[in-house]
Amino acid sequence: MLVVDGLVKRFGGFTAVNNVSFKVDQGEILGLIGPNGSGKSTIFNMLSGTFPPSAGSIRFAGTEIAGLPPHRIINSGIGRTFQIPRPFRRLSIFENVALAGYYGQGSHSRSKADEAAERALAMVGLPTDRTASVDGLGAAGLKKLELAKAIATGPKLLLADESLGGLDEAEMDQAAEMLRKIRTELGITIIWVEHIMGVLMRVVDRVMVLDHGEKISEGLPSAVSHDPRVIEVYLGTDAHATQATAAAAAAAGSDPARR
Amino acid sequence: MLELRSIDAGYGRFQALFGIDLDVKAGEAVGVIGPNGAGKTTLMRVISGLIRPTKGSISMQGTDVLTTPAHRIVSLGIAHVPENRRLFPRLSVEDNLRMGAFMPEARARYRERMDFVFDLFPRMKERRNQLAGTMSGGEQQMCAIGRALMSDPKLLLLDEPSAGLAPVVVQQVFELVKRIRAGGLTVLIVEQNVQQVLQVVDRAYLLEAGSIRASGASADLLADDSIRQAYLGV
Amino acid sequence: MMEIFDIYLLEALVNGILLGGVLALLALGLNLIFGVIDVTWICYAELVMIGMYGMYYLFSVYGLPYWVAAPICILLVAALGAALHFLVIEPLLGAPPINQLLATGGVLFVLQSFATVAFGIDFRNLGIRLPVLALGEMHFSYARLLAFVAALIGMVAVYLFMTRTYTGTAIRAIAQDRQIMALMGVDTKKIYLVTSALGGGLAGLAACLLVLQYDVHPFVGLSFGPITFLICVLGGLGNFVGGFVAAFLFAEIISLGGLFSDLEWGYVLAFAFFIVMMFIRPAGLLAKRS
Amino acid sequence: SAQAQEKKIKIGVIYDLTGPLAGGGSELQYVGAKIMIDNFIKQGGVEGYKIEAIYADAQSKPDVAINEAVRLIEQEKVNLVLGFFSSAQCVPVAARVEQLKNFMWITTCISTAVVENKNLKYVFRPQASGQQFGLMAADMIEKNAKAKFGKEPKDMRVAIIHEDGSYGVDVAKGNEAGSKKAGFNIVLKEGYSATAPDLSSLVTKLKRARPDVIFHTGYNPDITLFARQAREQGLKFGALVGHGAGYGVYEKLKEGMGSDVNYVFNIDPISIWLANQSALDPKLPPVIKMVGEEFDKVKPGVAIRSAHVGMAASNSYVFFTEVLPRAIKKYGGVDPEALRKAALEVDLPEGGTMLGFGVKFAGEGSPIAGQNERSFPVIIQYVDDKSYVVWPKSQQQREPVLPLPKTSGFSNQ
Amino acid sequence: MNKQLAWGVGLAALVALPFVYRDPYHLHILVLILIWSFAYTSWSMMGRFGLVSLGHGGFMGVGAYVTALLWNHLGVSPWIGIPAAMLCAGVLALIVAYPCFRFRITGHYFALVTLALSGIVLQIIIATRDYTGGSLGYTPERTKGSHIVALQFDDKVVWYLIALGIWAGGLAIWYWIDRSMSRYAMEAISEDEDAAAAAGVNVTAEKLRITVLSAVMTAMAGALYGQYQMFISPDTVSGIAVSLQMVFAAVVGGIYVALGPTVGAIITILLAEVLRIGFGTKAVGWDNLVYGVLLVLFIIFLPKGILGSLLAWLKSPSKHRDG
Ligand SMILES: Nc1ncnc2c1ncn2[C@@H]1O[C@H](COP(=O)(O)OP(=O)(O)OP(=O)(O)O)[C@@H](O)[C@H]1O
Ligand SMILES: Nc1ncnc2c1ncn2[C@@H]1O[C@H](COP(=O)(O)OP(=O)(O)OP(=O)(O)O)[C@@H](O)[C@H]1O
Ligand SMILES: [Mg+2]
Ligand SMILES: [Mg+2]
């Protein structure tokens, strides 16, 4: 459903993303990993229209969306979360999500927006009462709110940027579970950026690895976590690699849905 | 080296810490773990003077921290890498590092410290003129740690240093913590990554809902079943 | 005829540059306050006005020599700047920026009416007449040359101070994250004191030189206030070199615009230029485009 | 019955005591009017009517002037409003006063626009209009062109510059009309804002235009700035003719221009202390003396008493001696209607006021209804810290010095 | 329900007022307060969302001058002239604001761009004095025909009722926005434009809508002011001074509550009036001195505005937030 071809982003003289091409299929969860500064968030920013690509094409559900303004892209069915949560503190939790429901789907119906907000909040497990304030949320709550906002826009494709950072183990598991649920129950395709391999590798169908703005590896989690280049630049040699491999292996064994 | 006695602290009417007692001895690495919202960050802020406790006492190598003005606490040898990095986004990397060496004591050794930090994080040297706000999350974390090290501290407070870092960098950070310790620096570190932090610290405190629930040597905590259940997901 | 035209055009050009010096001098202190520490002193030009009165009293009433009066006046306005910070800005540091704008707007009223009450509504004048530099048909004012040189030296000095010293770096940092300054060992009060006094001092410097060219009256600030703000923004907030260049661009537009058309339209042109430039280079004349 | 005993006229007096106009001359006008009002209060009133004055500050803002006028009329129930310095205030206030059918006595506000085609019934201005100022300036230059400049009027190069407020614009219109009539070559006509931080391009244009005479209308800060930049840029000319306001305050002019002030012309209603006293009504010289003494008490140590003071004093005096007694005696009171009828009947010949001119108001139907048809300004010249009336011939105290002698920094000789 | 009743009674009382109490000067002040309240409310439509405009003097000037110019030169009735003037202001707002929002000019930058705009409008009015009367100001010609067509009334009561209606209309619009999704969108935009866009909000369009609405309403206020005073001058309806006056009054009253700007108008106008009359000519200049000091104190000690702080204070003891 998403076809990216030759995507490039330059900041001044610096090339953050260099000629990256990839595809995402309907209903899959693609893991996007890579060292810090390798261009993951930048790719998200281009996919969601936060800034236009310097070159390349992005086709979503058959139409070219590269360079469109963000609200058009969101309306066409791409939702995103931010790596560092960006809640609207002057609105209540419910209003935050209802806003996304109202504008995100482009339908501009108040009742539909409220409905969408309630569904999204229930999905991530946040209170659905209308006045609860954002200030009461901790790190985990804010991440959930990010997800709820993204879901409320009614996406076909969800871009999740580091949904786990700053969460404790129990919450991470919850979050991973949630992503899975989003995919299975809502049928939403997901691209997921994450540094916590133990969790990521368990959930994703396929992994793509970036380094210095270039794609260096792509494939099944188990394969990628054995790729020596990936180990060198990203996983490091010890525990993580083994953890990742183990997770991937475990997942492969337990999940019949995987091809 | 650092002693906290029955600290109460909070934000306005909201109390976040209840009667905290905590010790860090010279040369030790101590961890603080606990769920979200337990008050870990608050604890760090109290030590570095960003917020003042409502009750209790803190001393650093015999000096009363609470009577020391906030901006003099760095001079006692306490450096704090705050949660979420908190860099100066529109200053260059180099200027951020320079801010870390603001104290008169540190200025004299500016070059030397700078080389030390660049050694530690070659990426920072590469990006020394980039505005800190435009760097990736991981790069910013490096910069924040580097900035704290610029003051040549005796005690380094790290608040979730591994958050958002690539696994290879997380390893580097923890190795770094080890190296820093080897250099005689004392470290107090807050982490979600319990598994790994317990491998680098000597002792740890478990904080829950603003009180210390448990404490002890890392090995003991790692062996404790209830902790393994709650925090290691095992 | 053409020849004469050329020389007058040249004179207007050079006069534009000299006016630019005056505006650049004014913008210098404001850029420090408004551009760097992100505090809005809407009453900046009124500080200059008080400084000009200071010069008038020290020089004309108390009979001090100019070179003695000037440093006293600079100190005076520096103290005023610091007082402004601690009385008005400090309590508002956490409030929305618009509140700073308004509080200092209130101070603007206060200073204007204070001057009216204390110094009367008469126009005051030092009565110093500096010699004139004549190059053939063209004549230039020493008072303006002086302002130009002061602006240039001031700009370089402030630039070096801001980029080369620890205090300068701290000044640039303070607007970005005030809370954690203490972690760096920085006493924020002291930094604010230094900055506001410096900003005030620069206003005082401007006052010493402006008083050689302009009459003082309680409303003299109106002539300069808005344009000074526009220059700071046009040059890029906190960008001293940009501010300097912007001052000259503005001055040339006013000067040449005034030569080719009516004086009044010169200002319309300058304002319009500002708006257009905001669209073309929103982050300031010298900013790199991202 | 208490009311019947206590006969009283309440006067609302409005000038600018703060803001830019205050220093431009409004405050001096206020002093002049107050001296005269206090004088009549001290005398115990007029024709058995006690006088009560309520003063208000228009703060150099038209909306404040409107508000104060409305307040004085509707709230304080004054019988008339008197004063006003700026034409930008006079225009709307006059309209309001007409609407409220009150009475307005304007001592200053020289813009022609205040009365022109307004068909005002209750508004009177004994003062000369701005265009008269402008015309007078052109008249003097025209009559002296041949003798002093050695040129035909059509060869005279004149430049008209003015602040772009109501006052400058109006005077400049008069300058232009007069210059056209005289056949001068107008080489430049330009307005500028009184708060402009720079006039150097104006000076450059003047240098290029090489005028023999500059007609200038402005307030203080801009006059100083212009003079200073003109000198610094080496502008040369044969005569500088100012038109009241800033040029009327010699002290400030001298402070700003230094010795360059020598031989500058100024057009204003004559300063009452310069008036040819033998030509005046004999009861006036003691009043002039009184005003002078009172003024010295308010502002001691002023070398040349500003014309502004006398202007307001004289124009107020006309009200108290001509309008008020007639209204009371002939029309039975001080209501607006009585005051209006009394004002229309004022008929003073030349020499009948301290300013030298007479008073006869244009009545209903005239395009300038409410304007004193007998008023005229005079031209004075500042010579060595003294001022002399040099024009018109009838008032002349000495010959004008034209063109600027070589001793002047501006001389183009 | 109770609240609605209170509103109804309040409004009815306001409508009845001039028939009971007819002091003309006080009515005059009331009319001014109502017109300015409407203008300040219009400003705070934007101001409450962090769009600090220092250019509303320009819109006010366009409203007043276009209406008066059309009437005097072309004989166009203000009933058509005012909508035309509002249209002009709207177009002007579009021309300036669209690039601003497109190029992400916000905060200080936006404030100063709009400041320049009001400077331009002022200068143009002055420079085109052959049409506008320049700094002498401009007077709509008195009608020789119908007062209603010319929108000129000598009776202050009529004006009071007109101003009251407009003011109430302004409040209604305020409420309408407050209840609408636009408010959510604008709050979101004022905090974080990227995040708002990621929620699907068309940031540029939303900002433009609110800006144009605010500009158009301000132009209407300017036109009404001109019709009521029967006089406009660049200083009273245009330029930087008026723009600042709007910001002041609105913020002093409180920009986050509906009646805040109204309270701001009442306080600033009455305060200026009382101080000026109180000090009179005995202590010249002191009224503005005291006025300035009070403004500074208000803003330092009541940062949410007088009404905003008052409401917050009334609420806080009764309603315990979080816990
Ligand atoms: N606006 C910008 N100007 C200049 N450089 C930028 C800008 N935004 C990003 N970069 C650079 O582009 C590179 C890629 O950044 P990006 O945020 O996409 O990394 P990332 O892969 O998301 O890293 P992390 O895992 O740490 O979040 C980084 O080196 C960063 O410094
Ligand atoms: N600035 C603040 N104002 C009010 N309450 C705060 C503030 N900062 C933190 N809190 C509250 O204090 C409590 C402790 O917060 P703290 O940040 O110390 O937790 P933490 O253990 O660091 O959590 P995390 O793992 O999410 O970083 C939380 O309930 C939090 O909501
Ligand atoms: Mg990222
Ligand atoms: Mg924390």
TrEMBL record, chain A:
GO terms for molecular function: ATP binding. Keywords: ATP-binding, Nucleotide-binding, Transport. Transmembrane segments: none annotated. This is ABC transporter ATP-binding protein. Residues 2-237 form the ABC transporter domain. It holds the Pfam family ABC_tran. Gene3D superfamilies: P-loop containing nucleotide triphosphate hydrolases. The lineage of its organism: Bacteria, Pseudomonadati, Pseudomonadota, Alphaproteobacteria, Hyphomicrobiales.
Automatic annotation (TrEMBL), chain B:
It comes from the Bacteria. Keywords: Amino-acid transport, ATP-binding, Nucleotide-binding, Transport. The keyword Acetylation does not apply. The keyword Iron does not apply. InterPro entries: AAA+_ATPase (IPR003593), ABC_transporter-like_ATP-bd (IPR003439), BCAA_Transport_ATP-bd_LivF (IPR052156), P-loop_NTPase (IPR027417). One of its GO terms (molecular function) is ATP binding. Residues 2-234 form the ABC transporter domain. PANTHER family: HIGH-AFFINITY BRANCHED-CHAIN AMINO ACID TRANSPORT ATP-BINDING PROTEIN LIVF (PTHR43820:SF4). This is ABC transporter ATP-binding protein. It comes from Reyranella aquatilis.
TrEMBL record, chain C:
The chain crosses the membrane at residues 12-34, 41-59, 65-89, 101-121, 141-162, 191-212, 267-287. Its main location: membrane. Pfam families: BPD_transp_2 (PF02653). The keyword Transport applies. It is found in: Cell membrane. InterPro entries: ABC_transp_permease, BCAA_transport_permease. The keyword Transmembrane applies. Keywords: Amino-acid transport, Cell membrane, Membrane, Transmembrane, Transmembrane helix, Transport. It is a multi-pass membrane protein. PANTHER family: AMINO ACID ABC TRANSPORTER PERMEASE PROTEIN, BRANCHED-CHAIN AMINO ACID TRANSPORT SYSTEM PERMEASE PROTEIN LIVH. Belongs to the binding-protein-dependent transport system permease family. LivHM subfamily. This is Branched-chain amino acid ABC transporter permease. It comes from Reyranella aquatilis.
TrEMBL record, chain E:
It is found in: Cell membrane. Its main location: membrane. InterPro entries: ABC_transp_permease, LivM-like. It is a multi-pass membrane protein. The chain crosses the membrane at residues 5-21, 27-43, 50-71, 77-97, 109-128, 157-177, 210-228, 240-259, 290-314. Keywords: Cell membrane, Membrane, Transmembrane, Transmembrane helix. This is Branched-chain amino acid ABC transporter permease. It comes from Reyranella aquatilis.
